[in-house]
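User: Hi! I have a protein structure encoded as tokens and I'd like to know what sequence might fold into it. I'm fairly new to this, so please keep things simple.
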């Protein structure tokens, strides 16, 4: 049976919207919502957010309006804290959600922060979702629209967190393999957002100079690694003779078939296959000992 969430009816704010979204994301994606100010509806609900005058996570009650509660949280912050403390969400993701979204919603709802005029922040977007509603049923429909907006944000932050953790695993293995092989190539088995993980794990002093990985379109690409994460510089650039060339012009310049593109600033080049890419890098003298060693394989 689906989780039943109760919240107040009528006009809504970012905290009740986000609280419902968090529950749907991490407890029950099929959760149903009843919007009511009737204690009978609250009583039959599994979770009650932003209404009811009770803060008791053990009973699934998350209201912050009663005078007995003097803390900094809104309903959204209360739900996130419960999700973390009950191990329904890991502490790393909880911290990410708290810093990137939930703390701001808590601050706005409790009057510590005023949304800036003209800035389309989450709180102001939710507020706009109320516009045009005249009957309670109108507000109910608009509330679910706002929850869907929150769902996109929460899912995006969760996906970003998961991808970052996955990238750390993949990049760490590639960094270790490059060191073992004495290679200046960071060879990745698939497309990942490598840069934050690489520099978080000592990339500035790591001996690798180029990332070699597949593109999303099936191509193979080499990327010149910058000296620091935010830099536009390069530890070592691609050949100036390749700069800005495409297709047959690049084939002629590098002497290897399958060449497709080299950026004019010599920080990325694309080939049809990894074999052709490595041959071109090697022909240009850009591959140090071990650069053509065994590639890290992707585990199932």
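Assistant: Happy to help. Inverse folding works backwards from shape to sequence: for each of the 300 positions I chose a residue that suits the local structure. Here it is:
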């Amino acid at each position: 049976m689906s989780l039943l969430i109760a919240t107040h009816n009528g006009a809504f704010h970012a905290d009740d919207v986000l609280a419902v979204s968090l529950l749907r994301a991490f407890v029950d994606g099929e959760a149903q919502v009843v919007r009511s100010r009737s204690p009978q509806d609250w009583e039959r609900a599994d979770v009650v957010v932003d209404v009811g005058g009770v803060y008791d996570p053990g009973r699934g009650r998350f209201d912050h309006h009663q005078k007995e509660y003097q803390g900094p949280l809104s309903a959204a912050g209360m739900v996130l804290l419960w999700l973390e403390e009950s191990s329904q969400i890991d502490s790393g993701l909880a911290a990410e959600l708290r810093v990137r979204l939930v703390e701001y919603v808590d601050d706005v709802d409790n009057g510590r922060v005023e949304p800036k005029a003209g800035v389309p922040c989450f709180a102001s977007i939710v507020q706009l979702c109320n516009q045009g509603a005249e009957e309670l049923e109108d507000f109910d429909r608009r509330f679910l629209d706002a929850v869907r907006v929150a769902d996109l944000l929460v899912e995006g932050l969760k996906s970003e967190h998961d991808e970052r953790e996955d990238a750390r695993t993949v990049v760490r293995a590639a960094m270790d393999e490059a060191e073992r092989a004495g290679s200046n190539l960071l060879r990745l088995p698939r497309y990942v957002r490598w840069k934050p993980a690489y520099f978080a794990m000592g990339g500035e002093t790591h001996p690798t100079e180029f990332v070699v990985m597949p593109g999303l379109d099936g191509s193979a690409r080499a990327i010149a690694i910058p000296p620091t994460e935010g830099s536009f510089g390069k530890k070592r650039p691609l050949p100036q003779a390749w700069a800005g060339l495409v297709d047959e012009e690049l084939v002629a310049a590098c002497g290897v078939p399958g060449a497709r593109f080299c950026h004019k600033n010599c920080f990325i080049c694309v080939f049809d296959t990894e074999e052709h890419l490595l041959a071109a890098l090697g022909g240009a003298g850009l591959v140090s000992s071990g650069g053509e060693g065994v590639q890290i394989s992707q585990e199932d």
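A useful reference point when you look it over: The CA atoms of residues 163 and 183 lie 26 Å apart. Feel free to ask if any position seems puzzling.
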